[in-house]
Write a structure and sequence with these properties.
110 residues; mainly beta; Immunoglobulin-like; 1 helix; flat; calcium-dependent phospholipid binding; C2_domain_sf; C2_dom
Length: 110
């Protein structure tokens, strides 16, 4: 056990290992799963076919950029989307995300 503890100490970074010229903003990957409940039924003859579009606002910018989309879930007002959004979470920085829900009326290419 003592050897294991010594090996762990040797693998740990010390303050002397830190190079501020090579440092980057601390970040980690996060996974976001989306589901909706009690969506409005906007289709006439069936239930809505929702899709969620994730937008990210640029840091220091007001511009929203599309990051990704879920799959379309047909005829559901309570969809649990399978597609997950994986993105970098930057500590100490405010990151604005916007989730827009749309009803897909047809299988167009857009």
């Amino acid at each position: 056990r003592e050897r294991q503890q010594q090996a762990n100490r040797e693998r740990m970074a010390s303050i002397g290992d830190f190079d501020p010229l090579q440092a980057s903003v601390p970040a980690t990957k996060i996974e976001i799963t989306v589901s909706c409940r009690n969506l409005l039924d906007v289709d006439t003859f069936s239930k809505s076919d929702p899709v969620v579009v994730l937008f990210i606002q640029g840091i220091g910018s007001k511009e929203w950029r599309e990051y990704g989309r879920t799959e379309v879930i047909e005829n559901s007002l309570n969809p649990d989307f399978v597609r997950k959004f994986v993105l970098d979470y930057f500590f100490e920085e405010k990151q604005n995300l916007r989730f827009d829900v749309y009803n897909v009326d047809s299988r167009s290419t857009n």
